[in-house]
Write a structure and sequence with these properties.
Largest sheet of chain B: 5 strands, mixed
Strand content of chain A: 15-25%
Shape of chain A: globular
Oligomer: heterodimer
Structural class of chain B: alpha+beta
CATH topology of the largest domain in chain B: Glutaredoxin
Number of strands of chain A: 16
CATH topology of the largest domain in chain A: Rossmann fold
Strand content of chain B: 5-15%
Number of helices of chain B: 7
CATH class of the largest domain in chain A: Alpha Beta
Helix content of chain B: 40-55%
Number of helices of chain A: 21
Distance between the termini of chain A: 69 Å
Distance between the termini of chain B: 26 Å
Chain lengths: ~500, ~160
Amino acid sequence: MTTTIYIPCDSTARALGAEAVAASFASEIARRQLDVTLVRNGSRGLFWLEPLIEVATPAGRVAYGPVAAKDVASLLQADVLNGGAHPLCLGKVEEIPYLKRQQRISLKRVGVTDPLSVADYLAHGGTRGLRRALTLTPLEIVKEVTDSGLRGRGGAAFPTGIKWNTVLHAADEKKYIVCNADEGDSGTFSDRMQMEGDPFGLIEGMAIAGLAVGARQGYIYVRSEYPHAIAMLNVAVERATAEGWLGGNLLGSGKAFYLQVRKAAGAYVCGEETALLESLEGRRGIVRAKPPLPAITGLFGKPTVINNVITLGSVPDILANGAAAYQAFGCGRSRGTLPFQLAGNIKYGGLVEVPFGLTLRELLYDFGGGSLSGRPLRAVQVGGPLGAYVPESQFDTVLDYEAFAAVGAVLGHGGIVAFDDTVDMMKQARYAMAFCAIESCGKCTPCRIGSTRGVEVIDRLAAGNPGQTALLRELCDTMQNGSLCAMGSMTPYPVLSALNHFPEDFSRRPR
Amino acid sequence: MENPNHIIAVEQILAAKQSLPGALLPILHDVQDTLGFIPSEAVPLIARALNLSRAEVHGVITYYHYFRQSPPGRHVLRVCQAEACQAVGSDALAKHAQAALACDFHATSEDGAVTLEPVYCLGHCAVGPNIQIDETTLHARVTPEKFDQVLAELRSKP
C-alpha cells in the first residue's frame, strides 16, 4: 500500500530547511525502494515545529517535527510509515493543542492539502461556494456576505457586504475586483499562507465577488517580497482556468471572470487601497484623495471592489455554509474568525485562527507560551507598523475591533509582535517615524515632512532635551488629523503609545 | 552609453507587454528580471511605447524600492529590518552584515559578490531574524555565525 508523506512547501518552512528534508526523503525512499508518495502541502502554521512532516496512517495524520535532513534516515528506521515512535513524534497532528484549540475557516485547507491539487481542493469543499453563488442573484450573494458580518481583514474592518453593495449598484458596464495582497505589515503572514497554501480559495472568493457585483476582471496585487506566493498563484490561476473556475464560462454557467496576478515593487504605502490602484494603473503609488471611493471610481476610473486576501478567502465558506454559520462565531460587532499571527520574541510563533473574543493575554501565553528569550514580555505591537504598542497592563483586552479601539489601539490585520524587557521604546518610536519617512508617498505634508521632523524631535529627546515631549505630541496631533491616509495618520499610534505607556524610556539621561 | 543588447531586450518585452492594462510595472519587472536592472536607455523606449513622458517613467522607476538603475552584485542579499525581526536581534545582524561585507545598505561588497539591501518584512515573522538571497533562498533565525556561513557559500559561487 502506498503511504503518503506530507512535507510543507510554505516559504517559512523552506527558510527552515524543508527543501533539504524533502530531498533527503526522496533519496532515502528511492534507496530503500519504499512505496511512498511525497506531497508538498502548505504549513499548519506551527512554525517552531517546522519543518513539520506528516505521515498519513489509517488512524490519521501523524506529525514529526522539527525535522532536519539528517533525521530522515532515523525516521524511516523508526517505521514512521506506520506512525512509529521517534523522539520527534508529535502524535496526531490534529490533536496538537495549538491546532486543536483553533477554529480554522479562512485557512481551513492550508497545511492540509496540496495547494495546487484540483482533486484535493474539491475533496476539501472547494468550489461549493462558487456553485451556490451561481444559483443566486447578485443581490442575494451580497446579502449573504452582509449578513455574515464579515469586515475587511486588511485592517480597516469596513463591512464587506456594504462595500460590495455600493459596487453592485454603481451603474457601469465595466467593474473590477482587486485583491490587496500587499501584506507589508511586519508580524503578518496570513495572506502569504493563504496564497501559498490555498490559492484556489482566494481565486474562488474573487470569482464569487465578481458574480456578486457584475465584474468580469480581477487583479491580485502581490508584494514583490513574496516571490513564492506569486509563483503559486500563477500556477493556480492557470489550473483554475482549465477547470472552468475562471474564464469565459464559469462552471458552465455562461458567466465570465478573468484573473491576473500583478507583482508590486516594494512600496509599503501601496497597501493603502488608492495607492495600490495607482500602482496597478502603472503610476507611482501616490495616495488618492477620497471621495470618490474606489467603489464608485476605482481602478481605471471604474467601480471597484478592493479587498484583502483573507476577506476574499473567507467568502467561499460563507457562501457554502451560509451567513449564519459564520456569523455565529465572534463577539460584539466582530463576527467570524481572525487568523492572528504571533511573531517577534515569542516562544511558539505561528498562525492562530480563532473567533474574536479571546484576550490578548490568552493568545500571548496560552498559545504563544510567553517570550522566546524567557524574559518578561514588556510591549506588544498589534496591527503592524501603524499599530499601538500595548503594555502588560492592557494584555487582558478582548481581541475585537471595538475593544482595541477603546484602549487606543488597533487590531488591524491581526499581526502581533512581542518584545521582551530589553526593548527600548524610544528607539521603537523613532523607528516608527523613520519608517514613515522612508515609505511616505509624499502627497500630503503632515506625513512627508512630519515624519522626518518626528525623527529629529525624538533624537533631541534622546540627547536629553525633555522639553521636546510637548512638541512630539503636537506633531503627532497634526499627523493624525491632517494626513490623507493611514500612513501618516496612524504613525502616531506606535509613537504615542510608546510615549504614554513607557515614559521612563523617554526621560533617561543622555548616554 | 547605449548597449545594443539592452535595446533589443527592452523592445522584445515591450512587444509582449505594452498592450496590457497598466503595463508599466509588468514591463519594468520584465526588464529588471532580464537585465538585472533598468538601464537608462530603456526609459525613452518605454516612454514612447506607452505614450508617457520620460519623466513619468523615471518617476515610477525611482519611486519603487524594488527597481534598480544600476547592476547589482552577483547576489542580492536582503536583511529584514522590520519590527518582528527587530524583536529578535535584526539590528545587530544588520551591523554584522555591514561589517562582514564592508559596505552599507544599498551598496555592493568590493568583490562584487553581494549587494546588501534592507527589506521591510519577508513574512516569516515567527522565525526571525530573516534574510533573503536573490528571491530564491530564505534563511530563518539567522545568527551572525549562520550569516557568515551563508556568505562564505555565496562568495564561493560564481
